[in-house]
Specification:
Growth Hormone, Chain: A; 16 helices; single chain; 85% helix; disordered N terminus; mainly alpha; 2 domains; 420 residues; globular
Length: 420
């Protein structure tokens, strides 16, 4: 019983987390905005396809949303480290609301053309890329270090809720009010998210004497963040390698799932929806469990990540050996469970080991690395599915998950030697 209590923590720890007024307002705002994100992902793509009739023009939306965090993400972290994070998040949410509302407004006024649409999507992505690092940099201000895993699990939970509810609600709203008007709803969710951050009481300020926007100063701060990650704190590249490899496999699997269902299992879109829901429910189950897990030291977290990666790899491989819908749903739920372990543990570890004045920079550099891995996963799984078939691509994705497990286990002795 003692070991079980040690793993799950004391009930008083959970109560303090859920009774924390700052955490409550943050989670409510995040859940609403994540549902709005889910609305937008479907509605915006549908709107562009309906407007242009071109799949190529539609896919440009995804490219335009990927370029800003990939190219400008680290510089956004430099800026965020100079300003109060709560204020930055309120501004980001408010600007995103205005930009999204401008798309249907210009459409109804007859002024919206493709360059304007792409420009608004790109600028919106420029602001959106800064939100995640600002959130991660603010979380250590809201809870004690012993609750960092829990608040990161709650953050992941709001994202999962958005993935579950957002697309379903979006499809219903598109049928009722039209795709362009759903963007108004999404803008409203961002405004509500901004309002939910007003009651937050966070005592923070940008580093004194470092508020200049000079290019040389920004480059100096960026070099400082990169040096901290790759030179001064050698545990962080270890975490980046683990997270990037896990992200590569998870992203490859997510983008492979529709192809697998349609071409390998000969299933329809309704069955795809149910299987996708199984994956999300598994992820949500892990998120809820980790909300009650006590804080553990880094090397123990790596063991849990390695074990989860092994389970996920076996479940992916098992998908190639059955066509039973019920078994497929269970295996997808298991994959969701395994994929939910990495993010909260890794994010909490970074927050523990990074000075607060550098958190946004470090998370921006870290996110750039995992984004590159995600793009490789998307591209690689699609190329292999076209060349060798979805089953071969799925086996390769399972091999990536297994490799992530092996790499994590191999790095644990290094973790013990490098541990401060």
């Amino acid at each position: 019983m003692a070991s079980r209590q040690s793993f799950f923590g004391r009930s008083s720890d959970w109560q303090r987390l859920f009774q924390n007024r700052n955490v409550a307002w943050l989670v409510i705002g995040q859940a609403i905005s994540q549902i709005g994100d889910g609305l937008s992902k479907v509605a915006l793509l549908w709107f562009v396809y309906d407007l242009t009739g071109s799949a190529l023009y539609m896919t440009m939306i995804g490219i335009l949303q990927t370029i800003p965090p990939l190219v400008f993400g680290p510089f956004a972290g430099v800026l965020l480290d100079r300003v109060p994070k709560r204020s930055a998040m309120i501004v980001i949410d408010s600007v995103r609301a205005g930009l999204l509302a401008l798309i249907p407004t210009l459409y109804w006024m007859g002024f919206l053309n493709l360059p304007w649409l792409y420009g608004l999507v790109f600028v919106t992505a420029m602001f959106s890329m800064a939100f995640g690092p600002a959130l991660k940099a603010m979380e250590p201000q809201l809870v004690p270090s012993g609750q960092l895993t829990q608040i990161n699990a709650l953050d992941q939970g709001t994202m999962t809720i958005g993935q579950l509810l957002g697309p379903a609600i979006s499809g219903l709203l598109i049928a009722i009010i039209g795709a362009q008007n759903v963007l108004y709803v999404n803008a409203g969710t961002f405004l509500v998210s901004a309002l939910c951050k007003l009651p937050l009481t966070v005592k923070e300020q940008g580093p004194a004497g470092r508020r200049t926007a000079a290019v040389t100063s920004a480059l100096r701060d960026l070099r400082e963040g990169i040096r901290f990650v790759f030179v001064e704190h050698r545990l962080l590249p270890l975490l980046m390698a683990v997270a990037s490899l896990s992200t590569l496999g998870a992203t490859a699997f997510i983008y492979l799932l529709p192809v697998l269902v349609k071409d390998y299992l000969n299933a329809d879109s309704m069955e795809l929806g149910w299987l996708w829901a199984s994956l999300s429910l598994g992820l949500l189950a892990t998120t809820l469990l980790m909300t009650f897990v006590s804080q553990r030291e880094l090397c123990s977290r790596l063991w849990l990540i390695a074990g989860a990666s092994v389970v996920g790899a076996f479940a992916m491989f098992g998908l190639t050996m059955t066509t039973s819908f019920f078994i497929l749903a269970i295996l997808l739920a298991v994959i969701g469970v395994s994929s939910g372990v990495v993010n909260p543990f890794v994010s909490a570890s970074i927050q523990e080991r990074t000075p607060k004045r550098m958190l946004a920079r470090v998370f921006s550099v870290f996110n750039t690395g995992t984004l590159v891995a995600a793009m490789l996963g998307m591209t690689g799984s699609g190329w292999m599915a076209d060349r060798m078939g979805p089953a071969a691509s799925l086996v390769a994705t399972a091999a990536v998950a297994a490799t992530a497990a092996v790499l994590t286990a191999v790095l644990i002795p290094w973790c013990r030697r490098l541990r401060p």
